[in-house]
UniProtKB/TrEMBL annotation, chain A:
GO terms for molecular function: iron ion binding; oxidoreductase activity. SUPFAM superfamilies: CO dehydrogenase molybdoprotein N-domain-like (SSF54665), Molybdenum cofactor-binding domain (SSF56003). Its cofactor is Mo-molybdopterin cytosine dinucleotide. This is Carbon-monoxide dehydrogenase large subunit. It comes from Actinocatenispora rupis. Residues 1-20 are annotated as: Disordered. The lineage of its organism: Bacteria, Bacillati, Actinomycetota, Actinomycetes, Micromonosporales. Gene3D superfamilies: Aldehyde oxidase/xanthine dehydrogenase, a/b hammerhead, Aldehyde oxidase/xanthine dehydrogenase, molybdopterin binding domain.
UniProtKB/TrEMBL annotation, chain B:
Keywords: FAD, Flavoprotein, Oxidoreductase. It holds the Pfam family FAD_binding_5. It comes from Actinocatenispora rupis. SUPFAM superfamilies: CO dehydrogenase flavoprotein C-terminal domain-like (SSF55447), FAD-binding/transporter-associated domain-like (SSF56176). The gene is cutM. Residues 1-176 form the FAD-binding PCMH-type domain. This is Carbon-monoxide dehydrogenase medium subunit.
Amino acid sequence: MTATQDTGTREVGTARRRKEDAHLITGQTTWTDNIQLAGTVHAALLRSPMAHARIRVDVSAARNEPGVVAAYSGADLADELAGLPSAWQVTPDWVAPEHKPLATDEVRYAGDAVAVVVADTRAHAVDALDAIEVDYEPLPVVLDMERAMADDSPLVHSDAGTNVCFRYSDTFGDVAGAFADAPLHITRRYVQQRLVPCAMEPRSVVVAPVPAAGEYTVWSSTQIPHFVRLFLALLTGVSESRIRVIAPDVGGGFGSKLDIYAEELLTFTLARKLGRPVKWTETRSEAFQATIHGRDQIQDLDLACDADGRIRGLRVNLLADMGAYLQLLTPAIPLLGRAMFPGIYKMDAYEFGCVGVFTDKTPTDAYRGAGRPEATFAIERLLDELAAELHVDPLEIRRRNWIRHEEFPYDQIAGLTYDSGNYEAATARATELFDYAGLRAEQARRREAHDPVQLGIGVSTYTEMCGLAPSRWLGDRGYAGGGWEAASVRLLPTGKVEAVVGTSPHGQGHVTTFSQIVADTLGVPFDDVEVVHGDTAAAPAGLDTYGSRSLAVGGVAVWRAAQRVRDKAKTLAAHLLEVSEDDLDFDGGSFAVRGTPGATKTIQEVAFAAFAAHSIPEGFEPTLSADFVLEPDDFSFPHGTHLCAVDVDTETGRVTIRRYVAVDDVGKVVNPLIVEGQVHGGLAQGIAQALHEIAVYDEDGNLTTGTMVDYTPPSAADLPSFTTDRTETPSTTNPLGVKGVGEAGTIASTPAVVNAVVDALRPYGVTDVPMPCTPERVWRAIHEAQGGTS
Amino acid sequence: MIPVGFEYSRPSTVEEAVAALAADPDAKVLAGGQSLLPVLRLRLAAPTTLVDLRDVESLHGVRVAGDDLVIGAMTTHDEILHDARVAEHAPLIAAATATVGDRQVRHLGTFGGSLSHADPAGDLPAVACALDATMVAVGPNGRREIPAADFFVDYLTTALAPDEILVEVRVPDTAGWGHRYEKFNRMAQAWSIVGVAALVRRVDGGVTDTRVALTNMGRRPVRATAVERALTGTAGDAGAVTAAAGHADEGAEPPSDVNGAADYRAHLSRVLTRRALTVAVGA
């Protein structure tokens, strides 16, 4: 059963322009930093320029600076500020060091906050930071994970006695047997460089206390207002019912705002102490240092195969950089990739090991894809290497190993059940759009001619797990919370609809998508649906937005709630028309008595009747509203085939993407325009990892790439025009048949691009280029493969 | 991202501007602000006075004086890009200016500001050197002329005294010369990792003059004199170009940074010089 069968499709599947856009593109937005409350004071943080040092902080001089209201060191607030939470205990014996919002006696990464000034203006607060005296006594720094694991390594947390956060391992099938006499091994080490999320809107927090009532309103640029409320309550002792958290317009997150940050707890505590509104807004420079980073893994991989390229088994050993502290989900991120290393392929055995390691760097956490891009990169790069080893086309090697469409649902080696898919169809469509054969022929010609600009073709046939997540699955893995989602739908007396959702969009277009679902279910105009989100006072229950869950979990909750409203309306319509419910048809927003022309009630008429309640059946509760809290049955697994053609200038090392085709299968699609937008943005971020972005630290632990100029995120001018298309294989784990699309482009594109770069350079003896494949790295790879030194 | 507080002065004549600079030894000239404002916002510098030149009319615009093209220091990149006299008289400037920053930067950023900032990764200093341009400065002691070769002293440092202002740049006529600015960067709109400004004059097919200057191959623009010597007097054929370009990094001391190590830059300078000259000899 799908939504479209309820009422006849009108909205679902339509490329509606987003309701959100008019106010976004005309500057009518409310970013958190736009919140202007009378009497607001402004907080600014002093951050450590050193990666590891013992500190003594004296803020007294700052208190005398112009406009300063208060100044505190970490030690001053040590008793009032709880440690920040890490909600995912990945192993029983993990090491989870205390993480105070302000360092008290030791800083552990460059950017760790040591003191705060509150002043009448932001400029005064920033100026007064210069008056704070900090005595930094340098301590040894460890930045490299392998160095951090050595017995003689300096310790990030000396009292922990180790830099190892956790060790995790899993085995599926007969690994020893699969590897024992395998005729072919592909053994590689890949490095997932550290990335900086770079959401367009920096983080910002405003906390307004109502001292007499003991109540607080918190605005935060966050993906997770409900979690912010929960943790502020847990960490401060203030009752949840007295904390209202609002995520107003939020300008992107990509996982970086899926966190409980020091500044949220600190700003709350300052507002509580001072009894007046306090605002803190991150600078871009702070965002580079003090907002979480992503990726940062070393992957040791071993693929055991038969002589014809059939995969027998896969061994994965990861080192995952936690940074200096655990943020909300830090240790779980590499483990979210655990089950995705096998990708879309069948194999007999699989072994996964991961060690989480502390270093003196910014903490890592979820970044678009969160563990799954890393896994997909590994298997998709290995498949291309396997193909090269056997002199077989990379698409052919995939066909020999992938799950065939008739084999779904498929229990894959790592314990997941893939709901549905058709890898053959997506690949066929992609190769057609790409002119795969034509480009291969051109590649052969250019190789033959020794063209200094070589053509490379990269393949990525990915899948990913969307719809985080069944609560029992999360619980089994040590996560403190659940994975359900809540929605309330109210048909108001005017006939307009209010849909209140627990998801919290920050660019995804939930207002539009959910309006389409509700409009179809209730037979009301798209424009008559108002979607309310991101405010815990309006939507008390919700688990927010991350992990491509909002449609597959939240969208289904909205649909269920709307169905309940429609069912209730039907009961009242039958009463008003004095017939049995069984005699009513519902179509186009009207209940009609079957066989009696003219005997109809529109759903809007029923809504007013439910409000007036002058005539209602026995036991009928006035008004038309319903709630639904949806517990997802299982994940959904979108997939797709991405093909990338690059020109590589072998003289300079420059890589230019010449053609990029993405054929994604994200199940049923509610709004094709939004899906395409998600794919485009995802591709940009995945390509950025492949070619451009890397967080570089110098040997002292300073972030060298701490500005947009040095970090080099791509702009539109750096990206090609994408060719996108879809195949549609409905999910079987939810009644809408939807999957997820938020992370797909990012997951698929990174290996497609790197495979293309390596493919271009194989005639030169190159088998890998470390990411990002900058011109210099590409040139060096050629140079070294040709026997040169560098 | 909030600068340290400063005084703001907005003179309308060069004399007033010079006086404002002289009045505060920690004053700084604000031209288009495209390099200065980020520096202030990152608190990497904290001048106590900014002397904004936007209202000094005499610093704006392009004119021809005798054989020279004269470009006012406050002429924006965008104005230069759309100026017919620049296109005719010194097309190398237009070609290089088209690669500076993005559209917004080019509307605010100025020719003189870019030269006075003397960023070795900026594109225009090497162009000025290749053209043998003359910088005209005004200070308390009056007006003086500084050859481009002497103007760029070191990293972010020019021959200008703290109370001197670059007022205009005089550019010899290179109409009819072949030219090319070959810029290599990682990202659209970024600074050069290496750039090559090339000018070639041919008479009856033979190369009579070659000028090559390199961007970001040292702490200031580098004239590739070995390349110039090697190409001049040849027939300008591909073999001669390739041989000459092989000398591009001679005497250069390229930096190593996140965009490229010195050896990579040296290699790039040879490749890009060959490409720049290949275009320039063709005209």
